[in-house]
């Protein structure tokens, strides 16, 4: 079958929206690190919209930090791909044109550093997931013992990590008298701009204090809150897209219609007209970020673990289960008092809208996908909320069940005795702790609570927390996930 490309673009069915700007004249201005499905359904769509609104040199060069697959799929398509938005009443499709090229960092790290350091590169954006920051999720500080950081200190001109790449490029820019680019984190981390700034500065300081001081004085690291539900693309999606397009697209992205982007408007060298196409440029991102990380992602993770253990494959199925829907409502009741509402937002309405989004029957977002990397997600999704509830002397039963369900999940065996494919940088440690503890809730919870990179040194000393978690975990072992969630509502 013929492939989607600049050449075949003109022959697509007329009903399919495509870039209205002159794609052949588009010049790059952004390098995006971690060109996964989420970025292509969020940043790249906003940028495509902004280019239609006000054309400028804001094309995107993507960079894959690990594998060549994305480049291999997109290169033959001249960077073009389709975005299939799945609403409950049917799909809508468009072609995104903002991605110009894809580089593969491990194949030629120096070429990527050169591209980052080029004068045309005015923004370097990132979606490298939580673990891609090589930091300690409990504190937000650089892990100097992280294998990629150790590697990059030894090979500063051929870095592997996002932080190493950014610092290598900033070093070249400084030497050439160029201003730093804006580094724009689009990952689900609290205070993502500030965290990235700290990591870049600390890594630079390990090599050269004057470089660190120059970055500190001149760098721009705006905070962002990003939101869109984007499940992994499946073979069935690829076949469906080919049917709609009439040509083959090896790299479509699938997502819900809803999207939100709150961005701190502090850019060193300009930005696309994102504000004209729906992004909210704000002076304070924190309220948006707390709302989204605690209410959406906190609920997502809790539901992923409980849902998986209850035998639900997708978020839509899990949130359609009346017992788990009741659990979600109870969870949001515990979370809402800890969230400062962004101006004009009613948090109960926000929770109601989340439930509708989770239940979108057209989106198959696997609980297993969200369950990944819990060690990197729990601190900002659940543990910060728990700390604040404890300080206020408020109940935390639903939050504790979310944490206990994660513990039950990382034992690696489900309620039917089947193996769970636990994906997490700390999976080895979990397996060791789980083997030692067996089905003893007390032993398992205290073993896992001892992982300081997740729980810090404070939470294991909070008996109201440790007892609540052990109690819920005991319920999960003795009664199972559904009955334990049901018991909370009783
Ligand atoms: C999800 C997020 O995979 C996960 O951990 O919770 O990817 C979630 O879908 C997005 O943050 C929604 O914006």
Report on this model:
The strands form three sheets. Strands 5-2-1-6-7 form a five-stranded parallel sheet, sandwiched between helices. The mean pLDDT is 97. It contains 22 helices and eleven strands. The chain has two domains: 6-282, NAD(P)-binding Rossmann-like Domain (Rossmann fold); 286-489, N-(1-d-carboxylethyl)-l-norvaline Dehydrogenase, domain 2 (Orthogonal Bundle), CATH 1.10.1040. The protein is globular and about 65 Å long. With 490 residues, the protein is an alpha/beta fold. It binds D-mannonic acid (CS2). Residues 188, 227-229, 296-297, 300, 369-370, 377 line the site of D-mannonic acid. D-mannonic acid is lined by residues 188, 227-229, 296-297, 300, 369-370, 377.
Reported CATH architecture of the largest domain: 3-Layer(aba) Sandwich
- The strands making up the biggest β-sheet line up spatially as 5-2-1-6-7
**Terminal residue distance:** 57 Å
Structural class: alpha/beta
Helix proportion range: 40-55%
* Overall average residue pLDDT: 97
Mind telling me the CATH superfamily name of the largest domain? NAD(P)-binding Rossmann-like Domain
């Amino acid at each position: 079958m013929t492939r989607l490309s600049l050449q075949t673009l003109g022959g697509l069915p007329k009903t399919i929206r495509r870039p209205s700007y002159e794609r052949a004249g588009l010049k790059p201005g952004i390098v995006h690190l971690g060109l996964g499905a989420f970025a292509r359904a969020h940043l790249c769509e906003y940028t495509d919209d902004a280019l239609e609104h006000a054309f400028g040199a804001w094309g995107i060069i993507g960079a894959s930090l690990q594998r060549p697959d994305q480049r291999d799929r997109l290169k033959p398509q001249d960077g073009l791909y389709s975005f299939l938005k799945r609403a409950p009443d049917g799909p809508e499709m468009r072609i995104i044109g903002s991605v110009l090229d894809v580089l593969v960092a491990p194949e030629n790290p120096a070429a990527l550093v050169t591209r980052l350091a080029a004068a045309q590169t005015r923004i370097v954006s990132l979606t490298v997931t939580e673990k891609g920051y090589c930091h300690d999720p409990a504190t937000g500080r650089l892990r100097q013992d992280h294998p990629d950081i150790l590697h990059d200190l030894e090979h500063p001109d051929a870095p592997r990590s996002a932080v190493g790449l950014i610092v290598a490029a900033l070093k070249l820019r400084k030497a050439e008298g160029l201003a730093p680019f804006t580094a724009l984190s689009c990952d689900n981390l609290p205070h993502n701009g500030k965290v990235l700034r700290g990591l870049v500065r600390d890594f630079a300081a390990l090599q050269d204090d004057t470089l660190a001081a120059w970055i500190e004085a001149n760098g721009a690291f705006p905070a962002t809150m990003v939101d869109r539900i984007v499940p992994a693309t499946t073979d069935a999606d690829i076949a469906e897209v080919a049917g709609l397009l009439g040509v083959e697209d090896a790299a479509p992205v699938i997502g819900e219609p809803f999207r939100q982007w709150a961005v701190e408007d502090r850019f060193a060298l300009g930005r696309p007209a994102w504000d004209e196409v729906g992004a909210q440029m704000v002076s304070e991102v924190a309220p948006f970020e707390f709302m989204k990380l605690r209410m959406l992602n906190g609920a997502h993770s809790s539901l992923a673990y409980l849902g998986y253990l209850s035998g639900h494959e997708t978020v839509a199925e899990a949130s359609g289960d009346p017992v788990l829907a009741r659990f979600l409502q109870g969870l949001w009741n515990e979370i809402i008092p800890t969230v400062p509402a962004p101006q004009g937002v009613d948090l109960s309405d926000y929770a109601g809208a989340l439930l509708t989004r989770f239940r979108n029957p057209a989106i198959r977002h696997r609980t297993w996908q969200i369950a990944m990397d819990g060690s990197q997600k729990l601190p900002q999704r659940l543990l910060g909320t728990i700390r604040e509830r404890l300080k206020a002397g408020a109940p935390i039963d639903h939050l504790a069940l979310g944490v206990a369900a994660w513990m039950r999940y990382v034992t690696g065996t489900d309620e039917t005795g089947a193996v769970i494919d636990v994906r997490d940088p700390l999976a080895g440690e979990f397996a060791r702790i789980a083997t030692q503890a067996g089905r003893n809730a007390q032993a398992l919870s205290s073993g896992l609570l001892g992982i300081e990179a997740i729980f810090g040194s404070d939470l294991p000393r909070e008996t109201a927390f440790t007892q609540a978690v052990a109690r819920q975990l005991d319920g999960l072992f003795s009664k199972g996930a559904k009955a334990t969630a049901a018991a909370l509502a009783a």
